[in-house]
């Protein structure tokens, strides 16, 4: 897909540089940071995207792709480093592809992520960028991930088994002995896994630190950053309290995390989940905490939500959704528009699909976006978690 850019097609003039050619080396001044992590420069009127660069850099780059409106290049050398540039901690940075921002100071990462989210909400959703609050930083910018997916792959030229992460630029595994964004206990587990490797290539293994006090089945979802999770909860709790809703529906609730944690702010709550092991775990998680003002219902959310909202009184109910990165399905958005809860709390790890979905939800003034609170759940990477507060329009 063509990157989002405000550049217009180049118009030839005597002052324009000649067209770019594949393999050509060019000097660029990086002036912006695109959503996804690539630095942005210009060659004449052509926008050029270069990974692992940051605004303020002057670089030499090699052109790898040329399109009508944009080009891509790889970093060859830094001619002049930006003040915000720092030395990456990871040996594999730029190779494994898991991180995109280790070359940026953490303060700069948080600031640029705010700009990216605000720009996306304005460009994709048509919302006032002032609705996007500053990003809440993570207390642990490194060693925060509590879950990693590692793979094995036979390296035929080297005649050895590579053990580590799948690279994002090809189908090869980057052999990794240590991950700087993983929890220390996971690096211990990674070392043990490498000492006792899988018998062959093509296998993947999930290494995970259990969430203390929570029952989470093997294939069920739980947030990957324990350190920043309180900030997500605080934002959701504050939005919920401000709405005055008496009831909460935790749609696609998984093991019941949000419903249980937010139960103290409502008279009652209902968690809905299709995955049977997760819903059984949710019930035990509530029971172990003595939570008695809620229930967990097994089934398809889109089928059950209208009846649940009718029973609870939609005008006094908040619906919380936390979908995968691809966002909500269009029928889900239409369902929310039709049943009309007082508030929708939308938790998302992908600001672009969040802005898209909220544009559809708020179409024709049906709902109104009140605020977006980004939280840096994924330091050193392009990703950022957001909690959006949407209310029924009066």
Can you walk through the features of this model?
With 394 residues, this protein is α/β, with parallel strands linked by helices. It folds into three domains: 1-85, Beta Barrel (OB fold (Dihydrolipoamide Acetyltransferase, E2P)), CATH 2.40.50; 108-139 and 225-392, Vaccinia Virus protein VP39 (Rossmann fold, 3-Layer(aba) Sandwich), CATH 3.40.50; 147-208, no CATH class. The chain is 24% helix and 27% strand. The chain contains eight helices and 17 strands. Mean pLDDT is 93; it is low at 1-14.
Number of domains: 3
Shape: globular
CATH class of the largest domain: Alpha Beta
Q: In terms of per-residue confidence, which ranges show pLDDT below 50 for 5 or more consecutive residues? A: 1-14
Q: What's the CATH topology label of the largest domain?
A: Rossmann fold
Number of helices, where a helix is a run of at least 4 consecutive DSSP H or I residues: 8
CATH architecture of the largest domain: 3-Layer(aba) Sandwich
Radius of gyration (CA) equals 23 Å
Question: Could you tell me the mean pLDDT?
Answer: 93
Which class of secondary structure composition applies to the elements? Answer: alpha/beta
CATH-assigned homologous superfamily of the largest domain: Vaccinia Virus protein VP39
State the separation between the terminal residues, measured CA to CA. Answer: 38 Å
Order of helices and strands: EEEEEEHEEEHEHEHEHEHEHEHEE
Number of strands: 17
Helix content: 10-25%
Largest β-sheet summary: 7 strands, mixed
Biggest sheet: strand arrangement: 13-12-11-14-15-17-16
Strand content: 25-35%
């Amino acid at each position: 897909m063509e990157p989002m850019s405000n550049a217009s097609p180049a118009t030839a003039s005597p002052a324009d540089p000649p067209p770019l050619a594949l393999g050509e080396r060019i000097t660029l001044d990086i002036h912006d940071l695109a959503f996804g992590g690539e630095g942005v420069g210009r060659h004449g009127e052509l926008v050029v995207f270069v990974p692992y660069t940051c605004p303020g850099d002057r670089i030499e780059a090699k052109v790898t792709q040329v399109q009508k409106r944009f080009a891509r290049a790889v970093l060859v050398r830094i001619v002049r480093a930006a003040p915000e540039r720092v030395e990456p901690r990871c040996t594999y940075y730029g190779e494994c592809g898991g991180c995109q921002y280790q070359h940026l100071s953490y303060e700069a990462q948080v600031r640029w992520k705010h700009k990216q989210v605000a720009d996306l909400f304005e460009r994709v959703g048509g919302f006032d960028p002032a609705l996007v609050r500053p990003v809440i930083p993570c207390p642990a910018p490194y060693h925060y991930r509590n879950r990693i997916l590692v793979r094995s792959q036979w390296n035929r030229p080297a005649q050895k088994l590579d053990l580590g992460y799948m690279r994002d630029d090809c189908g090869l595994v980057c052999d990794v002995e240590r991950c700087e964004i993983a929890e220390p206990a996971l690096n211990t587990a990674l070392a043990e896994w490498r000492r006792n490797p899988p018998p062959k290539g093509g296998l993947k293994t999930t290494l995970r630190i259990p969430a203390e006090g929570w029952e989470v089945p093997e294939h069920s979802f739980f947030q990957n950053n324990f350190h920043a999770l309180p900030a997500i909860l605080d934002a959701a709790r504050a939005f919920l309290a401000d709405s005055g809703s008496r009831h909460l529906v935790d749609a696609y609730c998984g093991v019941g995390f949000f419903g249980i944690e937010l139960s103290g702010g409502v008279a009652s709550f209902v968690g809905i989940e299709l995955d049977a092991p997760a819903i059984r775990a949710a019930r035990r998680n509530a029971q172990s905490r003595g939570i008695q003002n809620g229930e967990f219902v097994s089934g398809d959310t889109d089928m059950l939500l209208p009846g649940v909202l009718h029973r609870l009184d939609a005008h006094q109910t908040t619906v919380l959704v936390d979908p995968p990165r691809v966002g909500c399905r269009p029928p889900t958005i239409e369902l929310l528009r039709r049943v009309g809860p007082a508030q929708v709390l939308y938790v998302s790890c992908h600001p672009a699909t969040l802005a898209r979905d909220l544009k559809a939800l708020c179409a024709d003034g049906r709902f109104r976006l009140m605020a977006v609170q980004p939280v840096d759940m994924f330091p050193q990477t392009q990703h950022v978690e957001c909690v959006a507060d949407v209310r029924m329009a009066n």
